[in-house]
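Hey, quick one: can you model this chain's 3D structure?
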Amino acid sequence: MRRLFWLAMGVTIGALIVRKLSRAAEKLTPTGMAQGLAGALRDLADAIGDFSADVREAMAEREGELRRATGLDGSTGPAPARSE
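Sure thing. Here's the predicted structure for all 84 residues.
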């Protein structure tokens, strides 16, 4: 019984190692490298797009703050004081 257990264990470990090595070898082929590079460039483009959208949003918010602070937003300044 022990021999059967160790044989099954050895076959299972051997199969896992072969699968892992096959995946690693596939990544080292030209096609695998191209797919990895394409994925990395796609991720980089997405990150740059997200960053630029955040910058544009913050820029618009700050411009609004500056316009309100300087009175360039169309208002004529602070509200007149009420006389009672």
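One thing worth noting: The chain has one domain: 2-69.
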